[in-house]
Structure formats: structure tokens, C-alpha cells
Amino acid sequence: MACFVTASFRVLQPRNSLISRCAMKTYLIKNAQLVNEGQIFKSDVYVKDGFIEQIAPQLNVSADEIIDGTGKYLLPGIIDDQVHFREPGLTYKATIRSEARAAVAGGVTSFMEMPNTVPNTVTQALLAQKYEIGAQTSLANYSFFMGATNDNLEEVLKTDPQLVCGIKIFMGSSTGNMLVDNQETLEKIFKEAPMLIAVHCEDEATIRENQAQYESQYGEDIPMRCHPEIRSAAACYKSSAMAVALAKKHNTRLHILHISTADELALFDNTNPLAEKKITAEVCVHHLYFQKEDYERLGSLIKCNPAIKEKHHQEALLEGLLQNKLDIIATDHAPHTWDEKQNKYKKAPSGLPLVQHALPLMLQFYQAGKITLDRVVEKMCHAPAVCFQVEKRGFIREGYWADLVLLDMEQEMVIGEENIQYQCGWSPLTGTRLPGVITHTFVSGHLAYANGRFNEEKNGERLTFKR
Length: 467
Description:
Strand content: 15-25%
Number of domains: 2
Number of helices: 13
CATH class of the largest domain: Alpha Beta
């Protein structure tokens, strides 16, 4: 009983709950080039009951469906550790269902979503409600961060490390009102948190002082190009340095999100293997791809926090990634409506939609010779699994969940309204030609996306963590 929906179908209808109980099919992927754990090699892969059953050069097993991978690359599913899917409360921008579909179309099979929804996810009851929405509507595998505030430590400490990806602290305000700026509260969270803490680092006092200066100069007409001076490199470094100092003081497992400056790279170690690091960091695709000069062309469409900065920061971030000072590539996918983005500087919200196009963007770096394909897989698939201790995902291994992406590098894509899956319907990349086309995406053994069509017979699974 099929339930395929074309990729261009934009009105998302409720699923048939009877269809979701269909038995899982078996799949045999033949002759693909596997990109996994630093190697690229030709192999077959057999998928059964949601898991990778066998990996071998030639498999002679019966399967419900055989997929010819000749000439294509088979990657582990991408794990995006930082997205904003806007549900509950902001569903006019996006929903967990709409953005999970966009993720799957882009080869992202698992996501970790942030707590600055409405209401903020700052109690165990509100966190449980999000997981229920994920279970009912997410085509991708899912996890949700528990949000910290200045006064919810008791709730934060109830978080189960094996069932929740992490605790999120905004050490700098962004979209929403979750700024944690009470030093005593920060000390307690860093000291007592039972699991990974992920932080947004920008010093709020520095930002406010900078913005006041630009307001005195421009009034309500602050140019978008001033964003990286207002949310400055100094503001980023000051906050990140404080977070690192707190983590070292309390031996906390710290992960700093979306590093955007060359200055911050000095805070991170690249001498130890990732699994042994207590302090890790990530870079987002937009900080690698865009630079300050792009504000003239794209304006508020690339306004985000922390800001996209000058070219020398952009170049240093890629080098920091290759040197393993930055451990993960993520998106910070954060959609807003087109109308919201048309406002002047102070009213135009920060954030841009990226989860569908993160892999194609990195493939452009690969095609240009700036990063190898196996390093792209390392930073987008293996490293998030290791960093967050995700159970049985992020690698192509027998016995692991079958989160798999089949990629045709002989094709290319042009981003346009007809193939954008975000509910907001726009992208700062519209009109951009990018290498590679994702032909198939498996989510926990379910072929969720094939040749431009979604199969919504089965939802993704809740991520679990081996801690």
C-alpha cells in the first residue's frame, strides 16, 4: 500500500494512521561506492527490519526492493545537531513535519531541535509534548534539547541523558527570550548538569553597546552590512571564552554551537580524539559559505546570530574545521516568513533556512577541492554521533540503524521554488547551482525519499544516547 507524495506538493495533509503500521520492506543496495570511516569502496548493503543487516562486495540475498547504486555514493545519514523547527507556537513559520521532510530531502536523517519555541521548552512536561509531536509527525529521526533559564535548574537536572540530546543555554539572546545571564545560575548548571551542555555564545552587554552606537548614527535605518559589527567578533569571543572557562572549572561536557570567528579557534583543542574531548565546537554551513560582502546582495536573508562575518573569518573557519579544532558541520536551520524578512534591520528576525541544502553546499566545497568527501561525511555524520554519543547511528556498520543517503554526483541541482521544501518557501540560495542530487534517503530502514518523492508510511525514530 503506497503512500508517496511528490516533492513539490506543498500542502501537508494528515497521514493515514493505518498506513503507518505497514510492515517494513527489505532493501538491497547494489554496487554503490560507500563513503564511511575515512574510506571509499564499492559494496552492497542489505537492509532489514530497520537495520543494516549485511555489508559485502557482492550479496546474493532476496529483498523486497533492489536499488542499483552503480556510479553513486552511499553515505551515512546526516545528523544535524542544531535546528529550529518552530513547533509549538510558531507554526506559521514552520512545523516539525514540514522541516523534517525538507531535512530528509537533503539527506539529513536525524535532527536535534532547539527549545526557543512558544512556549519555551523549559519544563519536562513541555519537553515531553515536543517528543509526542515528533513521534506523530516527523519523517526524520528526532531529539529535542531541554532549555535552561535563569530559574529552572530543578527542571533541567531532571533531564534523562539517555533519552535527550542535551541542555541548551543561550549565553547571548537570539530568537526568543531565553538569555541566561545570571552568573550564579550558570555556575550551578555547569557544575551539576548530568549531560552535554550546548551553548549559544555572544556577550549580550557588548552587543547592546554596539547596537546603541549604530542607532545613534543611523536611527531606524541601520544597514544590514553592520550586523557583524553589532554582533561582533569580540562579543563572540568574550562569551565563548567564559563558557570554556566554566567548563574547565567544573569538568563539564561542553559543546559550543555555530562558531563564527577566527578568534575563537584558539579556545579549542585538536590534540585529542573527538571521543576524548570534553569541550567541542561546530561550524555552520552559512558561516563557511557566505561572507560580509554578501549582505549587499542578500540583506536580511542572511541575517543570523551569530552574524556572518568578514572573509578572513570565513577562511579561518574552514581551516579550523580541517585542523579538527571545529568538530561538526551543522545548519542552525531557522526559518522565518518572507514578509518578516522584508523588515528593516531591527525588526527583521535572525535566521535562515538551510537543512535541505547543507550537504549540497558542502559538496560544492568538495568539488572545488577544498575538502574531501570522506571528511564531509566525518564532520556531518560520524562526528555528531560521536560527540553526542548517539546510539547506533552516524556510520555504515552492520547492526546499526539503516540511516543512508544515496548520492548521484553526475547530476546537479538548481535551487528554486519548485524544489524548496521549507514551509517558508524561500532560500537565500535561490538560483544557485549546486553539485550532486540525493536520489534516496533511508530513515531507520524506511525509504523515506526516492527520486523526488516522499514515502510517509513510517515516521522516524526517537534518538537514544549511549551515556
